[in-house]
Amino acid sequence: MSTTEGDLLHTVTADNISDSRRRLGKMMVWGAAALCAGLAIWQMMFETGRVASGFETWRPVLYAYVLWAFCLCAAQVIVNGEKGKRTLFVLPAALFVISLVVFPLLFALYISFTDWNLASPNGPQPNGWDNMVQMWNDGFYWNALKNMVYYVLAVSVEYVIAFGLALLLNAQIRARKFFRVVFLLPLMLSPVAVSWMIGKSMLEVRFGPISRVIRELGFEPSFFGSPEIARFMIMAMDAWTFIPFMMIMLLAGLQALPSEVIEASKVDGASGWQSFKEVIFPLMLPVSVTAVVIRIIFKLKLADVIINVTSGGPGGATDSVTSFIFREYRDRSNVGYGTLLAMVYLVLIVIFVTLLLKLVSRWMERPA
Amino acid sequence: MKVELYNYIRAAQKMNRRQMLKGSAALGAAAMMPKTALADGHSNVRAEILKIPGVGAGSPTDSDWQKVGEMCLGATKGNVAEGEFAGVELTFMGLNNQNLHNFLFRGFLKPWEAYTGAKINWIDLAQADYNARLQQSIATGTVDFDIIEMGAPFEGDVLGKGLASEMPDWVKEQIDMDDYVDYLKAPVGTWDGKTYRVSIDGDCHTFAYRKDYFGDDGIGGAEVPTTWQEINQVSKDLVGKEDPLTGLPAHGYLDPLKGWGGFGFYFLENRASAYAKHPNSPAWLFEPDTMKPMVNNPAWVQAIQDVMDLIEAGAYPTDQINADPGTTAFQQFLAGTGSMLMWWGDVGSSARTSDTSVVGDVVGFGVNPASDRVYNAQSGAWEDTRNEAPNMAYIGWGVYVMATVEGDEKKKKAAWSAAAHLGGKDLSLWASAYPSGFQPYRNSHFQFEEWEEAGYDRAYVEDYLGSNADSYNHPNAAIEPRIPGIFQYYSVAEDELAKGYAGQYGSAQETADAIAAAWEKITDQIGRDSQIAVYKASLGL
Description:
The complex is a heterodimer. By secondary structure, chain A is mainly α. In chain A, 73% of the residues lie in helices and 0% in strands. Chain A folds into 2 domains: 19-111; 133-364, MetI-like (MetI-like fold, Orthogonal Bundle), CATH 1.10.3720. By secondary structure, chain B is an alpha+beta fold. Chain B has 2 domains: 65-200 and 397-438, Periplasmic binding protein-like II (D-Maltodextrin-Binding Protein, domain 2, 3-Layer(aba) Sandwich); 214-392 and 478-539, D-Maltodextrin-Binding Protein, domain 2 (3-Layer(aba) Sandwich). Chain B contains 22 helices and 12 strands. In chain B, α5 (62-71) crosses α7, α7 packs across α16 (409-422) and α12 (265-276) crosses α13 (298-312). Chain B is globular, with a radius of gyration of 24 Å. The chains are: A mainly alpha, B alpha+beta. Chain A binds chain B through residues 57, 115-123, 134, 140, 204-207, 220-225, 227, 230, 309-317, 327, 330-334, and chain B through 132, 135-136, 138-139, 141, 157, 160-161, 248, 258-262, 317-322, 324, 331-332, 335, 337, 356, 484-485, 487-488, 491-492, 494-495, 498-504, 521-522, 525-527, 530.
């Protein structure tokens, strides 16, 4: 392309690229690709025992891949000149994402269809749909999924409390700034600290202060003895940590509301409740939905409190999918099956969140 | 010696000024002696090192460790010439728990490095990261260390895969392996008849009980229970009674009902070993020829049933279903809840030094309780004979040299010399007497007069360490299988037990069957044939 034709507006320099230069660029890319693919195939054959010699590790293949990526970037400029430079703004980032996200995801997908147990002398061996069948018959996994439904449903209660607190902190109350900071404190704590400070210390049946108070009142404290109460306590601790997160989002939403509309409703004689129901709540819907969806995504990853306080007990009543996968993976080195569970959970989450967003999309736009 | 134990002894005994001065004077005299005289004067070494820094003189520091390392170099000097390993670099992987383990090793090995000319690089790991790091190194073939501090349960993973270097004969002589307590002798530390492990620690569960529950006026009865049958009965009889110390409800034996990353299974083993570990076979978890789990045989079912019965009887404290072994030991037993417990050495030693402990004056020790009857898996029938089988839970730490040193004789000798130095007879005496993270594990460690001379209270040392010595040398000690993935079996069993205890299975048998099914799955996944071979090798069959 010369400067006298084509897209003159976005072209700065004239590129007179010779055919030999183009050939060189293409050769670089294909040459590096062939080297990378050749090494990968060679190494694969070595690993499967089809050829006698090979590398000790896959690292040379990685170096060949990096070389190919470098050649691909350089070739853009060599072949396309200035247009190639524009491509270079995006290409390294895209390659980076592919290398660090897409490739590991594909590798994980492969792992999840193997029987890889770190203690096994044979390493990962593909085992078809065995892991899937095992998952289908795994009572612990389904139990954890069922618990996740309870945990996610608890978000609705958290939302109500967070909204109430946000309204309070948005009102003209004394020491408003102080309370805003105080209510945010739990969010700043690590869930691990919460589980030890509250779950393992304050709720300790014998000498925990809360237990003592309950005993003083004439009851026998038990926080993790029955499935329902244990599940509730986990929900409560998790809620205590994350309600401030929803609260702060809702508070930001409340502060961004146009005050004229609210004042107009007051002029029209709306009571406090009417003003909330007819004006504030509908106007807050987009923020609310965002807060709830993000909170649900957080909730789906719930694990730390459970691992520390109950290890999923009693009898799996508090187990979350993540805490179960943690045990499967860390305690049992069951990499293949654990990865499959995580992949299935990922797919479930993607489907669930997509449906959820679709469902709530009509509330995401502020009413005109 | 565990730190808590050391602190406990210091707190328990009143060290008078004279004793203290005696220790200090001896240390002063030792400091004035020429170094060679110290190192070569073997007969004096044991007495001298026990005075560094002296009982009651505060916790030892790096300079003390170096001093001890220097004084114990005599054995090394017998086998290695000065500067022989110049230019050799070794990598040592171990733990950094409580600022012990690798921290001590650094101090002990510094004089060794100076003498031999070798250099050691260190990989320090937290306990929680240890398993994962080791497993990943093995699975991905990236063993980047030459010497490792490792627990015997991992021998299946490491020795079974040929990743370690066989111990040369001169090392066996240098460290005097015959001095090991019985259960640490072969087959522990060996694989297919070859020796790999330099032991530096011993582990077992011992029985701790509250003396104020038992005796003529004791609410638990006149005698301390010695069998699980008695323990179960006492635990049930104590329901509704009041604890003599705290005034809160009295409780008997404390079973942890919640998992602990696999380690919780040791506590069911404590009960089961008495029922299931018949003297006629070392196998009590799997059948050696088939790897068929024994965990659902009548002996194990009885152990699970015992716990279920006590749950049913309301014999445990509230929320016991959420109590892991850490809770039963430190939040319950030491805090005055419950009267009987099985645990590692930490419990006895924390009794007086822990802030939350109230039982320091009333705690007594013993070996793992027996059973009135034992299940003979070979004949498939119960036998009405008394059976005792102490549970050697975890078997303790050892130092292993990896196969990475093979092919380089100088490096290999250097690695083994370093390992032998750490597992030396004299050095280990010091490690068992001062905070190190390690328990006594040699018969020579139980010569109580040496402890007494060093300034320890003999009565305490005899009572507490005596229960360990009795367990270690027990002819029917229950030793865990050193097979790959052993903690996977334990971990999955914990999950199933939790379900059973929560009433989600119909019976103890059903719970045990679920564990057995899960174990079969793990065995198939890791590879049944290889597991059978490794299991047999680990049992010395």
